[in-house]
Amino acid sequence: MSASATLAATFLSDRISALQESQTIAMAKKSRELAAQGHNVINLSFGEPDFQTPQYIKDAAKRALDEGYTKYTPVPGYVELRQAIADKLRRENRLEYQCENIVVSTGAKQALANAVMSMVNPGEEVIVLAPYWVSYEEMVRLAEGVSVRVMGSLENDYKATAAQIEEAITPRTKLIMYSSPCNPTGAVFSREELADIAAVLARHPQVFAIADEIYEYINFEGEHVSLAEFDEIKDQVITVNGFSKGYAMTGWRVGYLAARKEIAGACEKMQSQITSGTCSIAQRAALAALEGGRSSADEMVTAYHRRRDLVLKLVKEIPGFKTPTPAGAFYVFPDVSAYFGKKAPQGETIENATDLAMFLLNDAHVAAVTGEAFGAPNCMRFSTAAADEKLREAFIRIKDSLEKLV
Ligand SMILES: Cc1ncc(COP(=O)(O)O)c(C=O)c1O
């Protein structure tokens, strides 16, 4: 421990000391440093659309200011926005919810954190389907819960099975957490797979599930199925969604959850003491986004689909990279373990995916994220949310750099 870290340990809480810094953010920071030194860094580490927010949504935000939407907002969100969300859930997801079931938050991230903090007691177990989104385990840690990883196999597109989940359930299990489409793998659960998971929940009515559907619109192949569609377990499901990915609104910070009213009420209480209601202007913009339907999202999805195909082709040309075909989201997540144990020209050995990510950043000037961050240490995540030429150039550089490893 450095001297300043030793000093900090005397006054910072154990809670914050135990918390990991987000590795995606750490990688972005390093690539900015290299770029500042004049290197042409291609950053494929971001989990962010490279598109601008559609103009009609920006216009609604400007109108909101002119119309005086500048005051505190109701803690669970404007009633018009919650009603529009309830309508969307009914129309697109076959889910019946009222305003009282919906809490609008500062990003889907806050909705997830609200749910975990409202549900998990110290020592209770949360089954996290791995590979998982970076923040799940840290949220569980903050709630003093115990995360239990259930790992999907490469052969099953990294999707954990219902049988694996059931095997991991103990008397201490409180929650299951997953994203579909999945960040980082792009895997999408089918109706049959979710029906099997729903059957497990029906056999364990004390267990709840957080279904993170933030990538719902970015789905190239199948239909989107919500776990809450299975009526007998609907009350056990907390559905999380938001505007960041589908509407390219990452900076606006609007997400939401839908759940039975006791859980929604608990999340509202949590939020009332931490942040209060989400930004007034961003909420009005989110309302306009929903009123505009999904056509702007569909245009972006066409580009993500084309880039996914392009990157898959480029990845397949790299010896040793093994990747399933992502059905959604905007990432590819190859197994890169064929390079472990090899030596770089400077003599250092690539022990793991973190070393490989660092080697590629320094040698190819391409930033990606180690699979360690997602509970999959053999893998690396590359974002496909970048221009086609950048993606082509990145994978040419990666291939050249990897050829230097012996
Ligand atoms: C799976 C998943 N859930 C939630 C979030 C958070 O979304 P928001 O930006 O709305 O907080 C992200 C963002 O990267 C994500 O990938």
TrEMBL record:
Any one GO BP annotation for this protein: amino acid metabolic process
Reported cofactor(s): pyridoxal 5'-phosphate
InterPro entries assigned to the protein according to its UniProt record, in alphabetical order: Aminotransferase_I/II_large (IPR004839), AspAT/PAT-like (IPR050596), NHTrfase_class1_PyrdxlP-BS (IPR004838), PyrdxlP-dep_Trfase (IPR015424), PyrdxlP-dep_Trfase_major (IPR015421), PyrdxlP-dep_Trfase_small (IPR015422)
Alphabetical UniProt keywords: Aminotransferase, Pyridoxal phosphate, Transferase
CDD domains: AAT_like
Top-level taxonomic group: Bacteria
Keyword Cell membrane: no
UniProt GO molecular function: pyridoxal phosphate binding; transaminase activity
Domain Aminotransferase class I/classII large residue range list: 40-394
Signal peptide: none
EC number(s) reported in the record: 2.6.1.-
Enzyme class, UniProt record, top EC level: transferase
Pfam family, one: Aminotran_1_2
SUPFAM superfamilies linked to this entry: PLP-dependent transferases
Similarity annotation: Belongs to the class-I pyridoxal-phosphate-dependent aminotransferase family.
Protein name: Aminotransferase
